[in-house]
Amino acid sequence: MIEELRSIGLSDLEARIYLALLEEPEISGYEVAKRVSVSRTNVYAALRALTDKGVCRTIEAEPVLYDAVPIAQLIRTMKTRFDQTSRLLLQELDAPPKKAASFYSWKGEQALRQAMERMIANSERSMIVDVWSEDFQAMEEALLDAEGRGVRVIVITIGEVQTPLKEVITHLRSADWEEHISRKFSILADGKAALIGSFGKTVKLSALETDHPAIIELLKNGFYHDLIGERIERDFGAALKENYGKDYEKIIASYRELLT
């Protein structure tokens, strides 16, 4: 029986002590040491280990007495733990490996527009688009098609646009915006795929397509701040201008070198 008990995780001494307690329950550590002919120091250490493993239990007395958990109860407990661990291992390790995040680059006007149209056409639940008004028309038709098939389309524009789309948030442009060399855009599809790029006459048209969680989270955070900012400006615009200056100049002034 020693080998069988060792196969379920007991040491040689722990197995001998367990068998001794089955033969003579409710005995002291001193009595256990006599039965297995091992020093009391080693026996008490093994008894603590058996108690921690749930293999034996103590009875508060003077001295403390030890009793073996019946083998049937022990086996059922171990079987339950094994089944739980097995299910967890199967769930975690039998699943297909998670694909690493992908990064794809697109260059040139045609490649950019094809990437935008493909992402919009394949959206199923939602589209969040942040784009300059000059570049909105290039994707408007695809966005209208998406909205028509039940996709929720939300557009944030820099500059005003005229469109039948239901949800449009407009950022009015200040003089500072005119100095931008490139006009950035972003598309977030179904909260899990992103296309980020830029338009502009003096820069080469390019975009990055990715499903990297960090980029997705950045776009979601940007959308969150757009929503909050738009509502606050709508409700408290005059007070904000009075307290912080036009276009929040009083706040931005000390950080302007970091924003250029």
Automatic annotation (TrEMBL):
Pfam families registered for this protein in UniProt: Regulator_TrmB, TrmB
Record-linked SUPFAM superfamilies: Winged helix' DNA-binding domain
Domain Transcription regulator TrmB C-terminal, first and last residues per copy: 106-234
InterPro entries per record: TrmB-like, Tscrpt_reg_TrmB_C, Tscrpt_reg_TrmB_N, WH-like_DNA-bd_sf, WH_DNA-bd_sf
Every Transcription regulator TrmB N-terminal domain range: 5-71
CDD domains given in the database record: PLDc_like_TrmB_middle
Transmembrane region(s): none
Secretion signal span: none
PANTHER family reported in the protein's UniProt record: HTH-TYPE TRANSCRIPTIONAL REGULATOR TRMBL2
Protein name: TrmB family transcriptional regulator
